[in-house]
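Severity: low
Component: inverse-folding endpoint
Summary: output formatting inconsistent between runs
Steps to reproduce: submit the following structure tokens with default settings.
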């Protein structure tokens, strides 16, 4: 075996995959490879929880590699995507000597890490006389130090630490793409949606909806243990379209599918390029019939990913590890892909450039961190850009710890709105699956109180002082509206409800209006509406509710919500002649006690609009804060954020204690 063979190492919460490669006359050869399952609790969401067991597992992995054992040198390691922040953006025309400063300002304003914790580097994607595309990656220095310490303990020598997303694309294609492709990586803890084109990574979004969320949802809905739920997920997947497990898994996949379609649509509108296909990778992409499910719901060609270095040897394995090893095998070919350098002491021009700004310090000044890493002391306040230095949103926002930071707000619909579907239509699907389309009104009101016939919404006004154009103004307005929605515990409809007649002729300041609503209220009202029309109890029929569209009416204070309800029932349900609408009563929650938020690794705790991780994140709470406890559901607490109109949200009891 050649000791100098470059190695790619991919560690997830559940597996270790390692590949060593060599080049023989221009042909890539596998020197050694291995895949080992990790027990639960060794790695969680990209953080090391049991270093000793992980070091032992790594030793076993390299020793038992085939066809040859692997020498743990020249390693390129993929930092788990849940701990890596990636930002792709454009800089307007600027002086070259100002670029480091502009990138640093963008990092400070968009990477959600505590002060003095950001390690970052960047690379230039493209340059034109008026635009420069930039990809920036960042990680917490504490997370980075954890992995460095582990590799020292295990006797591994790491040349570079890279983004798993970038490595996955390389592991799928090796050479640059000729047409855009969307990669959906459905892992255990998170799902990453990325779009790559000829110029590299152009869009990225990370979601909490993934394999673990499916397992927890199955455990709750089927009243079985998480271990049993995992087996149900593996055994049945999406193969039984009439079973309850199908609806549970589909509810989570629906969130992913919606975000995939929105991301593709945004990318195509922004760039004018057509996405060629969707490629599924990650452990949860092994679900039975998932390819067929995505083809039906995304509406384009869907492939299962296959490692470029393991052609015809199986799908969905060694993709990231193979891509990491290719970087080590051909370092000059992939030199422009950003990475943090490791223990080998090699140089990387882009990493040096990223730390060249005057406010940055080098890692040799920081205890326990490799001297080849740039550490930027960060105070996370938004820094306004000056004229000529305006940072323009490209459409790829930050993804990392805690889910999505803004990437859900990138959709921009300048084209005509979708037509609302006919109210109360019904379709009978295979084996007792029925789909109903329904419409209900949203009434804009100041008191935010629902009526028996409608759901109450809020119009949120934003004013944009300056932007590079209409798309940029909408993106900025949407981000501001999203903040307003989170503060109210509401959801944001992604389309602006006021659109200029001619978006090419706009003046600033520009006022843009947005609609805020409560998703759970819409679901409750729509189910009650259909129950009144049919006489059936929809709530016991595993309903899956999708909001298709929200459109304005002639009345400026009324909007129409079009939705789809999918249920499972052995008998055909028909729509009756509807009589008077009946109200859906609200029950006041009984105050049990108070809870105090405990210390977390991130310095905050996500608060959701429902009692499991499949529900959307509404806001964050912080250690030491105390809230009134309204309700308990398993391992979740429902708390009152307080104040007039304060949100009622759910937090996990692992990080909250009753007083």
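Observed output (run 2 of 3):
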């Amino acid at each position: 075996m050649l000791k100098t063979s470059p190695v790619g190492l991919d560690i997830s919460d559940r597996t270790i995959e390692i590949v060593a490669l060599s080049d023989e006359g221009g042909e890539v050869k596998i020197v050694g490879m291995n895949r080992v399952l990790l027990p639960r609790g060794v790695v969680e969401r990209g953080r090391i929880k049991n270093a000793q067991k992980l070091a032992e597992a790594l030793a076993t992995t390299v020793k038992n590699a085939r066809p040859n054992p692997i020498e743990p040198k020249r390693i390129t390691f993929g930092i788990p995507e849940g701990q890596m922040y990636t930002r792709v953006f454009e800089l307007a025309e600027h002086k070259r000597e100002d670029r480091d400063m502009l990138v640093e300002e963008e990092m400070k304003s968009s990477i959600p890490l505590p002060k003095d914790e950001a390690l970052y580097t960047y690379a230039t994607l493209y340059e034109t006389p008026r635009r420069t595309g930039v990809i920036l990656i960042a990680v917490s220095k504490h997370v980075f130090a954890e992995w460095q310490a582990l590799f020292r303990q295990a006797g591994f020598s790491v040349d570079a630490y890279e983004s798993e997303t970038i490595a996955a694309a390389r592991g799928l294609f090796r050479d640059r793409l000729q047409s855009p492709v969307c990669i959906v990586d459905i892992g255990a803890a998170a799902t990453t949606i990325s779009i790559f084109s000829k110029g590299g990574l152009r869009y990225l979004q990370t979601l909490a909806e993934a394999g673990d969320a499916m397992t927890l949802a199955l455990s709750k809905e089927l009243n079985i243990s998480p271990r049993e739920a995992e087996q149900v997920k593996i055994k049945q997947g999406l193969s039984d379209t009439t079973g309850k497990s199908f609806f549970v898994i589909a509810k989570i996949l629906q969130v992913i599918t919606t975000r995939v379609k929105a991301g593709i649509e945004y990318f195509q509108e922004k760039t004018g390029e057509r996405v060629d296909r969707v490629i599924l990778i990650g452990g949860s992409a092994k679900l039975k019939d998932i390819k067929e499910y995505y083809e039906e719901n995304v509406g384009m060609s869907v492939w299962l990913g296959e490692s470029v270095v393991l052609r015809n040897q199986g799908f969905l394995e060694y993709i990231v590890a193979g891509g990491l090893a290719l970087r080590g095998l051909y370092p000059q070919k992939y030199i422009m892909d950003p990475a943090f350098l490791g223990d080998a002491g090699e140089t990387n021009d882009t990493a040096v450039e990223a730390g060249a700004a005057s406010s940055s310090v080098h890692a040799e000044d920081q205890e326990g961190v490799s001297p080849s890493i740039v550490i930027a002391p960060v105070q996370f306040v938004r820094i306004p850009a000056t004229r000529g230095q305006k940072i323009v949103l490209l459409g790829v926002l930050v993804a990392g710890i805690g889910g999505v930071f803004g990437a859900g707000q990138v959709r921009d619909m300048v084209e005509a709105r979708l037509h609302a579907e006919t109210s109360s239509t019904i379709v009978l699907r295979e084996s007792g699956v029925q789909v109903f389309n329904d419409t209900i009104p949203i009434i804009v009101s100041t008191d935010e109180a629902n009526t028996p016939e409608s759901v109450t919404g809020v119009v949120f006004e934003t004013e944009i002082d300056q932007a590079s154009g209409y798309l940029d103004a909408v993106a900025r307005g949407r981000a501001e509206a999203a903040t307003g929605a989170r503060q109210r515990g509401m959801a944001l409809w992604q389309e602006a409800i006021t659109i200029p007649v001619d978006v090419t002729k706009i003046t600033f300041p520009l006022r843009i209006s947005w609609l805020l609503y409560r998703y759970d209220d819409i679901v409750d009202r729509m189910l009650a509406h259909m129950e009144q029309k049919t006489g059936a109890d929809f709530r016991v029929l595993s309903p899956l509710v999708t909001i298709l569209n929200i459109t304005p009416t002639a009345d400026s204070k009324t909007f129409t919500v079009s939705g789809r309800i999918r249920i499972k029932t052995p008998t055909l349900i028909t729509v009756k002649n509807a009589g008077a609408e009946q109200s859906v009563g609200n029950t006041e929650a009984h105050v049990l006690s108070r809870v105090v938020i405990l210390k977390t690794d991130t310095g905050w705790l996500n608060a959701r609009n429902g009692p499991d991780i499949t529900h959307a994140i509404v806001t964050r709470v912080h250690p030491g804060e105390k809230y009134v406890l309204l309700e308990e559901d398993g391992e979740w607490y429902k708390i009152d954020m307080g104040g007039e109109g304060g949100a009622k949200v759910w937090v996990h009891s692992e990080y909250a204690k009753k007083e």
